[in-house]
Amino acid sequence: MARIGRAHRLTGLLTLGCLATFGTASAQIDPLEIIDQVEQLYRGDSSRGTTTMQVVTENWDREITMEVWSLGDDYSLVRILAPAREAGTATLKADQDIYNYLPKVDRTIKMPASMMGGSWMGSHFTNDDLVQESRLINDYDIELSFDGDRDGIVVWEFTLVPKPEAAVVWGRIEYRVRQTDYMPLAVSYYDEDGELARSMEFSDFANMGGRVIPRLMMMRPADKPGEYTSMRYEDLEFDVDIDESFFSLRALQNPR
Amino acid sequence: MMIARRKAFQIRVIAVLALRNLRRQVRRTLLTATAIILGAGMLVFSNAIGDGTHEQWIDDGVRTGSGHATIEHPAFRMSRKLEDRLAADVRAVAEAALATPDLADRVTGVSAQLTISGMASSAAGARPAHILAVDPQAEVDFTNLDDQVIEGRYLQSDDRLAAFVGVGLVETLDLRLGSRLVLTAQDTNKEIVGQLVRVVGVFRNGAPPVDNTVVHIPLAIAGEWLGSGDDVSKIAVMVEDSTEVSSLVRRLRQALADPVDAGRVTVLGWREAMPALASLVAVDQFGSYVIFAILFVIIGFGIVNTVLMSVLHRHREFGVLQALGLTPRQTGAVVLLEGLLLTTVSTLVGVGLGTWLTWYFLGDGFDMAVIAGDSLANNMEMGSVVIDPIIIPMFSVARTLQTIGWIMLIGILASIYPALRATRIDIAESMKFDQ
After folding, report:
1. Do B126 and A126 touch (CB under 8 A)?
2. Residue A96 forms contact with B (CB below 8 Å)
3. Domain extents for chain A?
4. CB B271 within 8 Å of CB B67
5. Which residues on B lie below 8 Å from A192 (Cβ)?
6. Cβ within 8 Å, pair A191-B124
7. Structure letter (DSSP) for residue B138
8. A173 CB near a chain B CB, below 8 Å?
9. Please, what is the Cα angle at B94 between B91 and B100, to 5 degrees?
10. Pairing relation of β-strands B214-218 and B125-134?
11. How many C-beta neighbours within 10 Å does residue B135 have?
C-alpha cells in the first residue's frame, strides 16, 4: 500500500508546520536525512494563515484570497475570502477525504476517488495534491547529484528515482536545497522519458510567525508554457488554539 | 357403434368435399397458398434476423459487463463501493452451484471481478477510471476486449503489475506499452491508496465510455492493493444464448436462497442488470410486432377473400348439397376445413422454405454494414455497448412453433366468416337460377 507522492508541496504549505532548527551541516551528508528534514518544513502543529493564489492559464487568469487553517498532517480547512463571488466556498481535508462546500447552493460534496484527479479550484493543483502527504523518502531512492554553487547560492541537488513498485507517476524528481538553511529552492518532476512534466519554485524567504519559510511558491506545468499557479502567504501564525473538532463538516459550512 | 361409424363417414365426406373444392379451383388455391407461404417465410426470416440481432446486442452487452446473470451484493449496484462486495462464503456457494454438472454444461463463461471506481494517473495527468480486477485466464473466455487489442496483449495469468487499458485513456494520459500508470482508490479501510501498474496492452472497443475509462488489472494485485484479498464485487455468468437466462437465474437463486434471504447477495438477469439494453431490445421487438400485425392482417384478408369468394361462387353447389341432406353445420365445417387445410399446408411449406432460405443465404452472418454503409462498419454503439455489425440469424423451435401457431390462428379466424355464410344458405333461393 504505497502512497502517492505527487505535488506534496501544496499540502505542505497548507499545513505549514514546525520548522526544525538545524545545526551545522555535517561533513558527511546523508541525502535521505536532508530531504526528510526539508520535508519537515511542511509538517507539524497548528497554523492559520492567509494566502493569495494566482492562477494564470492561456485563456484566463484569476486571483483568489483564502484563509487556511491546519492541524498536523491530517487536517486542513481552506475558505475563500475574495473575490466576493466565490467567498465562502470552502474545502475541508480530514484524513484522506476532501469535502467541498458551495455556499451558493448550500451543498457539501465529498470528493470521490475518481474526482481526485480534477483541478482544485481551477488551479494547476489536483485534489489529489491536497490529500497525499509526502513520503518522498519511502517512495524514492535518493542520491546527491550536485554539491556546489548555482547562481551564487550554495546548494545540494538530489535526484530521486522511484523504487521499483512505488505508486508514483514520476520517472524522476530533481530536488534543489539551499545548504545554509535547508530551504527548498526548486523541485522538477520528470516523466519516464526524462521530459520535464512540471516544476515548482520557492522564493521570497521570510520570517513569518516566528519561522523562516518560502512565502512564494510557483507551480508551472511543462506542457503549457506560460501557465502557472502561484501561492503567496500574506500572513501566517503558528500554534493557534484549534483542535480536531474545528475541522468538522459544520465548521466547513458555517464560518466563525 | 352405428352412430360412431356414421360420424366417421360424415367426417370423411366433409374432408373429401373440402379437398375436392380446393382442387377444383387450383389457380385460386395456389394464389392464396402463395400469399400464406410468402407471409410465413417472411415472418420466419425477419424473426431470425430480429432475434439474431437482439442476441448479438445482448451478447455484446453481457460481455462488456455483467454477464447474462450477475451475482452481486444487493447494495453494490447503487453504491459501486468496495465494501459492498461478495462475502467469501457466498462466493464459495455460488461457485459450487455453478460447478454442478447441470449448470456447468450450460455455462460458457464465468467472470469473478472486483469493480473499482478510482483514478488513473500518469505524469501527464489524471482521469477517472473504471477499474476491473479480473482473473486473466477466466476473463479471456468472457470478455470481448481481448479481441480488440490494438497494441500489446491481454492480461496473462502470471502478470502482476499489469494493466490492459482503453485507447482513450492511453491517449489522454500519454501512455505507451510499459508506461507507469498509478491507480488510486479507496481501500477496505477507506484510505485512499495508490498502486503502480504498467501498461501491457491497449484496446479499442469503440464505445467512448469504455475506451476512456476501463482498465483491467489482475485480481491478485487488486487484492494486495486494496486489502480485499480474493474478494470480488460480482460474479458474471454467461450462457449459450439469452433464452436460458431465466432458468439460470432461477437455479442460482435456489442455490443461494439463504444468503439472498439474508440480503447478502442478489442474482440479476441481464434485463435487470442492463435495463437500458433491455428496453432497447423491447422497443425494437415492439417495432417488429407492429410489422407482424400488419402482415397478419394482410394474410388474413387474403384468406378471407379466397374462402369467401369460393363460398359465394358455390352458392348453388352448397344449396344442392344441403338439399341432398348436408346440415348447415356440416356445410360450414366443409368451408372451415378448406381454410384450415389450405393454411396448414401453406404455413408448413412457408416456414420450411423461409428457414431454409435464411439459413442458406445468411447462415454465415448478415453484414449490416452492407446496408448502412461504412459509418457502421466498425462502430455501432447502442446504450454504450458496441454492436458487431454482422448479424447471425437465430432460429429456435419455440419461435417457429409460435410463427406456425399465429398463422394457423389467422387462417382459422379468416375462415370463420365464410363458414358462417355457408351455413346460412337459403336452399330454395340458391337453386332457383341456373348459373
Report:
1. yes
2. yes
3. 8-19+28-253
4. no
5. 123, 179-180
6. yes
7. H
8. no
9. 140
10. parallel
11. 19
Residue whose C-alpha is closest to residue A111's, from A89, A86, A133, A91: A91
- Distance from the Cα of B65 to chain A's closest Cα (Å) equals 19
- Overall fold of domain A8-19+28-253: outer membrane lipoprotein receptor (LolB), chain A (2.50.20)
Question: Is the CB of A169 less than 8 angstroms away from the CB of B123?
Answer: yes
- Contact map slice: A 16-55 vs B, CB within 8 A: none
Contacts of A96 in chain B (CB under 8 A): 186, 190-192
* CB contact (8 A) between residue B180 and residue A192: yes
B119 and A117: CB-CB below 8 Å?
Answer: yes
A74 and chain B: CB distance < 8 Å anywhere?
A: no
The DSSP symbol for B175 reads: -
3-state secondary structure B30-46: HHHHHHHHHHHHHHHHH
Rounded-to-integer distance, Cα B174 and Cα B199, Å = 11
Query: Which pLDDT band holds residue B17 (cuts at 50, 70, 90)?
Result: confident
| pLDDT in the model for residue B91 | 85
d(CA B435, CA A240): 119
What whole-number distance in Å separates Cα of residue A179 and Cα of residue A25? Answer: 8
Contact B424, B332 (CB under 8 A): no
Longest CA pairwise span in chain A (Å): 59
**What grid cell was written down for A197?**
512534466
Q: Where are the domains of chain B?
A: 2-61+278-430, 67-272
Nearest to B17 by CA among B315, B279, B331, B262: B331
pLDDT in tens, B117-161: 888 988 888 888 999 999 888 888 888 788 888 989 999 888 889
pLDDT in tens, B163-176: 999 999 999 998 98
Confidence of residue A12 (pLDDT cuts 50, 70, 90): very low
